[in-house]
Every structure is written in C-alpha cells, then in structure tokens.
Amino acid sequence: MVYLRNVCLMALLTLITACGIKPWVKPYERHNLADPIMSFSRDPVSSAYIHHVYQAREGARGAEGGQGGGCGCN
Fold first, then answer.
1. Greater model confidence, 40 or 61
2. Which end of the chain is more exposed for a tag (fewer CB within 10 A), N or C?
3. CA of 39: how far to CAs of 16, 18, 28, 31, 44, in Å?
4. In contact, 47 and 41? CB cutoff 8 Å
5. What CA–CA distance (Å, rounded) separates 36 from 47?
6. Distance between CA 61 and CA 31 in Å, rounded?
7. What is the DSSP string of the chain?
8. With b meaning 16 or more CB within 10 Å and e meaning fewer, what string describes 40-64?
C-alpha cells in the first residue's frame, strides 16, 4: 500500500512539474521555424505556391497546412 502511494505521489509530482516547462523556442526565434527552408518538401517555395493554388481552386483552406492570411480574394 505504501508502494502504491509513493508511485501515485511521484506521478502527481511529475504531472505538476511538467506544467511549468517553458517553451524551448523563444518568441523572437519563431520566425526561423516559419521559414520555407524548414519544410519537408524538396522545393518548399513552389510547394507552398501549389498548395495555395489548390486551396483557392477547391475553396478549402488549411487542409494540408498551408499558410493563411490576406483578404481571401484570388
């Protein structure tokens, strides 16, 4: 019974301390992750353009992680 209580206490302590973790990426560093070079595709700039054209043609936005913004008129 003591063992179970210690395990529960350790699990609770782990969960409580996990909420206090600060993000590793600072707000002023996030523009580096939004750079097209960080994409998995071979040619990220043309891939983003093709996704934009596809989303505008289909009338669906955000299905494959494309960037949003603008007024929506194409």
1. 40
2. N
3. 34, 29, 19, 13, 6
4. yes
5. 9
6. 22
7. -HHHHHHHHHHHHHHHHHTTPPPSS-GGGHHHHTSGGGSSSSSHHHHHHHHHHHHHHHT--STT-----S-S--
8. eeeeeeebbeebbeebeeeeeeeee
- Give me the amino acid identity at 41: S
* Rounded distance between C-alpha atoms, residue 62 and residue 68, angstroms: 7
Q: How confident is the model at residue 58 (pLDDT cuts 50, 70, 90)?
A: confident
Tens digit of pLDDT for each residue in 11-21? 988 888 766 66
**What is the share, in percent, of the chain residues with pLDDT greater than 90?**
8
Tokens of 58: 């289909």
